[in-house]
Amino acid sequence: MYVCDWSITSAVVGEFAERLPGHKETDWRVSWLPDRLLTRTQAIAAIELVELLYDTGRPADAGVQARVAAAAAELGIRPIDVAATLSARRDRP
User: Fold this and answer.
1) How confident is the model at residue 30 (pLDDT cuts 50, 70, 90)?
2) What separation in angstroms does the CA of 26 have from each of 16, 59, 84, 90?
3) Is the separation of the CB atoms in 17 and 30 below 8 Å?
4) What's the angle, vertex CA 53, arms to CA 25 and CA 92, rounded to 5?
5) The whole model's pTM is what?
6) By Cβ atoms counted within 10 A, which residue in 9, 48, 72, 84 is the most buried?
7) Rounded to an integer, what distance in angstroms lies between the CA atom of residue 44 and that of residue 64?
8) CB atoms closer than 10 angstroms to residue 24
9) Is the pLDDT reported for residue 17 higher than 90?
């Protein structure tokens, strides 16, 4: 994950976050949650969450599951709802 003052990108997935110009410094938008304004911390959690769920090379051990749960909790979303949202995005042409 690459984090700077205006954007958060990933080398693992195509999802991203960007700070909204003309908004408060704390207003971020994440590509897979376009209808929500997030804080920078939440935006980082959102991209980490996508990386954890998309990276099939990662073992699905208790440590990874705990990180998924913590990142989802930071966003106020259940991990199953995250998986459903991401699955729907992936299935689009």
Assistant:
1) very high
2) 16, 33, 27, 28
3) yes
4) 85
5) 0.86
6) 72
7) 16
8) 10
9) yes
Flag whether pLDDT at 13 surpasses 80.
yes
pLDDT of 28 > 60? The answer is: yes
Cβ 43 vs Cβ 73: under 8 Å: no
What mean pLDDT comes out for the span 45-72? 85
Pairing of strands 17-19, 7-9: antiparallel
pLDDT tens-digit map of 34-43: 999 999 999 9
**Strand order through the sheet with 28-30:** 2-3, 7-9, 17-19, 28-30, 33-38
Q: DSSP of 16-85, one letter per residue?
A: -EEEPTTS-TT-EEETTEEEEEE-HHHHHHHHHHHHHHH-TTS---HHHHHHHHHHHHHHT--HHHHHHH
d(CA 46, CA 85): 12
